[in-house]
Write a structure and sequence with these properties.
By secondary structure, the chain is α/β, with parallel strands linked by helices. It has helices at 11-22, 34-43, 65-69, 84-91, 116-124, 140-144, 158-167, 181-203, 208-228, 239-250, 255-264, 269-275, 282-296, 301-310, 316-324, and strands spanning 3-7, 26-30, 59-62, 74-77, 100-103, 131-135, 149-154, 173-178. The protein binds nicotinamide-adenine-dinucleotide (NAD) and SN-glycerol-3-phosphate (G3P).
Length: 333
C-alpha cells in the first residue's frame, strides 16, 4: 500500500489527507501542535480548520515527524510557504531515500525569490526528479465536501508525476500530469496576488468588466514572467494557470480574494490581518513575486499595484486609477 506523510494540518493538508485516504493510501498527518494532532488521531476530525469533515479511519495523526516519515513513499508538504525552509530543515535528516517530496504550497520565498520546489531541493538535498508539485483550482472547503475538481501533478520526471497522480486519484479528484514544474508553481503563486487585486475591485463595488480585465491582464503578467523563467506558456491556459485564477478570483471561499475584498471595502491593513484567520499567501508573496519579476526584467503592473496597497498603504482608488492611466499599448507585447 502507498504510504503518505502529510505535513500540515491546516485546511488543505487536512482535505488532501482525505483525498489520499480515499484513493487507497495509508496516511499519517503531521501537526506541530501535539494536542491538535492527538485530537485528529482520536476523533478523525480537525476542529480548528475543517470541523465538519469526518476523515477516513485510515488517516492517523502525530506531532512526531519521524513517525510520519517512517517508510513514506511520499512526503506531502503543506505549511505556509514562508515557514517551509525552517520546518524542512528539521525534517530533512529523517527523510528516507525512496521518499518523493510533494509541494502543495502556492508561494514564492521572500528574499531568495525561490519557488517551493527549489527550496525543497536545496534544504532536503534532493534532485528535481524527487520533487513534485500539485496546483490547480482546489478550494479546500469544496474538496472536503467531495465536490468534483481537477488539478495538476507536475514533476520533471513524468513517471514520478504519474505515481503521485495514481496516489491521489479519486472519483471526485482528477489529477492531470505535467512536466512544467516552473509554470505550475508560478501559476499557483501569482494567482493569489491577482486574487487580492480582484477582491479589492469587488470590495470597491466594481463590476464584472473590471474583474475580467484584472483576471485576463493578470494572466498575461503571469505568462510573461513564466516565459522569462523557462515555463511552457500552455501551462497558463490550463488548470494551474487560468483554472486556479478563475476559482480564486470568483470565490468568497478564497482567503486571498476575501483579504482583498476587505481592503477594497476600506478596512485598514491591520484590521484585515486581524480578520484573517488562515493563510493568505499573496499578502507576502506579492513582494517576492515583484522582486522575482524585477530581477528577471519583467513588468508586472497589477502585482506592483497590489504591493502598493498592501505594503505601501496607498488607497485602492488611487492605485487603480494609476493602472488605468498607464500608456496605451498593444495587447500582445
Ligand atoms: N486552503 C486551500 O484551499 C488551499 C488549496 C491549495 C493550496 N493551498 C496552499 O496550501 C498551503 C497551506 O495552506 P492552508 O490552506 O492549509 O493554510 P491554513 O491557514 O489553513 O493552515 C496552515 C497550517 O500551517 C500551520 N502553520 C502555521 N505556521 C506554521 C509554522 N511556522 N510551522 C509549521 N506549521 C505552521 C498552521 O498551524 C496550520 O496547520 C498554502 O501555500 C496555500 O496556498 C491551500
Ligand atoms: O484560499 P486561497 O486564496 O488560498 O486559495 C485556495 C486555493 O489555492 C484555490 O485553488
Amino acid at each position: 500500500m502507498t504510504r503518505c506523510a502529510v505535513f500540515g494540518t491546516g485546511s488543505w493538508g487536512t482535505a488532501f489527507a482525505m483525498i489520499l485516504a480515499d484513493a487507497g493510501c495509508e496516511v499519517v498527518l503531521w501537526g506541530r501542535r501535539p494536542e491538535l494532532a492527538e485530537a485528529i488521531d482520536r476523533t478523525k476530525t480537525n476542529p480548528d480548520y475543517l470541523p465538519d469533515l469526518r476523515l477516513p479511519d485510515s488517516v492517523r495523526a502525530t506531532s512526531d515527524p519521524a513517525e510520519a516519515l517512517a517508510g513514506a513513499d511520499f512526503a506531502v508538504l503543506v505549511v505556509p510557504s514562508q515557514t517551509l525552509r525552517a520546518n524542512l530543515a528539521a525534517w530533512a535528516p529523517l527523510i528516507e531515500p525512496q521518499t518523493v517530496l510533494v509541494s502543495l504550497m502556492k508561494g514564492i520565498e521572500l528574499g531568495t525569490v525561490k519557488r517551493m520546489s527549489e527550496v525543497i531541493q536545496e534544504v532536503a538535498g534532493v534532485g528535481p526528479e524527487r520533487v513534485a508539485v500539485v496546483s490547480g483550482p482546489n478550494l479546500a472547503p469544496e474538496i472536503a465536501n467531495r465536490q468534483p475538481a481537477a488539478s495538476v501533478v507536475a514533476c520533471v520526471d513524468e513517471s514520478v508525476a504519474q505515481r503521485f497522480q495514481k496516489a491521489c486519484h479519486t472519483p471526485y479528484f482528477r489529477p492531470y500530469t505535467n512536466t512544467d514544474v516552473v509554470g505550475c508553481e508560478l501559476g499557483g503563486a501569482v494567482k493569489n496576488v491577482i486574487g487580492l487585486a480582484v477582491g479589492m475591485a469587488d470590495g470597491m463595488g466594481l463590476g464584472d468588466n473590471t474583474k475580467a480585465t484584472l483576471i485576463t491582464r493578470g494572466l498575461a503578467e503571469t505568462t510573461r514572467l513564466g516565459l522569462a523563467l523557462g515555463a511552457d506558456p500552455h501551462t497558463f491556459a490550463g488548470l494551474a494557470g487560468m483554472g486556479d485564477l478563475v476559482a480564486t478570483c470568483s470565490s468568497p471561499l478564497s482567503r486571498n480574494h476575501t483579504f482583498g475584498t476587505n481592503l477594497g471595502r476600506g478596512m485598514t491593513l491591520d484590521q484585515t490581518i486581524a480578520a484573517t484567520k488562515q493563510t493568505a499567501e499573496g499578502v507576502k508573496s506579492c513582494e517576492s513575486v515583484l522582486d522575482l519579476a524585477r530581477r528577471t526584467g519583467v513588468e508586472m503592473p497589477i502585482v506592483q499595484a497590489v504591493v502598493d496597497v498592501v505594503h505601501g498603504g496607498r488607497p485602492t482608488q488611487e492605485v487603480l486609477a494609476g493602472l488605468m492611466a498607464r500608456s496605451a499599448k498593444a495587447e500582445r507585447r
